[in-house]
């Protein structure tokens, strides 16, 4: 997937009508407990993860690493799927019923590891401005 993004970026950058900031692509294991490369720590304005936490070995470590990659004041943006906690119970029940019926097929097709999914129970605002969600 990163290769696709890199290829698309090269095409955009080659277009003289497109103004893009300096950009670096890096590949690393976000879920590893091994130390992150020093040159990447506190260096990103934002870290974006879309539907990926259910597919990594250690979702909690992944979020910790994302936080460590962000500059002070940086943002972590997570777009995830899962059971709904929508305030209107009957809507949450409908959504959860549909998700429950399709969860196994979704996991098999997209590689979601349901057993390692992380459920966040608390959200705190850190001094850096990044939401820290604690299991």
From TrEMBL:
<protein>
    <submittedName>
        <fullName>Methyltransferase-like protein 7B</fullName>
    </submittedName>
</protein>
<dbReference type="GO" id="GO:0008168">
    <property type="term" value="F:methyltransferase activity"/>
</dbReference>
<dbReference type="Pfam" id="PF01209">
    <property type="entry name" value="Ubie_methyltran"/>
</dbReference>
<dbReference type="InterPro" id="IPR029063">
    <property type="entry name" value="SAM-dependent_MTases_sf"/>
</dbReference>
<dbReference type="GO" id="GO:0032259">
    <property type="term" value="P:methylation"/>
</dbReference>
<keyword id="KW-0808">Transferase</keyword>
<keyword id="KW-0489">Methyltransferase</keyword>
């Amino acid at each position: 997937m990163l290769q696709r993004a890199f290829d698309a970026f090269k095409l955009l950058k080659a277009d003289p009508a497109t103004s893009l900031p300096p950009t670096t692509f890096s590949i690393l294991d976000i879920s590893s407990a091994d130390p992150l490369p020093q040159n990447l720590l506190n260096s990103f304005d934002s870290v974006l993860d879309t539907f990926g936490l259910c597919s990594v070995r250690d979702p909690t470590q992944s979020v910790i690493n994302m936080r460590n990659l962000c500059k002070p004041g940086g943002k972590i943006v997570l777009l995830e799927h899962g059971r709904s906690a929508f305030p209107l119970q009957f809507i949450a029940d409908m959504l959860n019923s549909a998700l429950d019926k399709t969860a196994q097929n979704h996991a098999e097709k997209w590689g979601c590891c349901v057993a390692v999914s992380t459920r966040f129970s608390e959200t705190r605002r850190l001094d850096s401005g990044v939401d820290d969600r604690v299991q």
